[in-house]
Design brief:
Helix 1 runs parallel beside helix 8. Helices cover about 35% and strands about 15% of the residues. The longest helix has 17 residues. The protein has one domain: 3-Layer(aba) Sandwich (Rossmann fold), CATH 3.40.50. The protein has 8 helices and 6 strands.
Amino acid sequence: MLTHSGRRWTVAEAGARPAVFIDRDGTLIQERRYLADPTGVEMIAGVMDAVRALKNGGFAVVVVTNQSGIARGLYTLEDYEAVAARVDEVLRENGASVDGVYFCPHHPEVTGDCDCRKPGTGMYQAAAEELDLDLARSYYVGDKVTDVLPGIALGGVPILVRTGYGAEHEATVPRETHVVQDLSEAVRLILSAVGKVG
């Protein structure tokens, strides 16, 4: 059983909502290294159902993505926005819209240190403030170590998916990280933990 802080909890508990933070590239959409063309957007199988299930379960769904290609000059902010718009369009067309999208355009070797680049927690804290989220009751899903470390730092539940770069990162994630095949399996695990399935 997936647990949080040693106890079961329900989405209906009072206070700020829990969220599921989802990395974009390699978790929500197919990994296309430094994707700059919206025609390259391809959803990973099962993500539409997974996002809809989270929303139906009472979770906020927030996409959180590092986009260092902007700082590196590999694509422009406008390129990123075009890809993000395409992702949003595909999700909405399938009834799987998300509550927020946060991105970090920086890279420390180019722009210096920032608090938003994962594994930093700046994007999560911004989302919590703007969307009234409870970070300690939230889930952090992605295909890299940097996607799950914020969950540990913020007292939430880290989940690594094996899609994207996940299979390569599996051996290096902290032991408290749950490892699953893909976003669909992560969502089944989350909903089971809060008594929504199974």
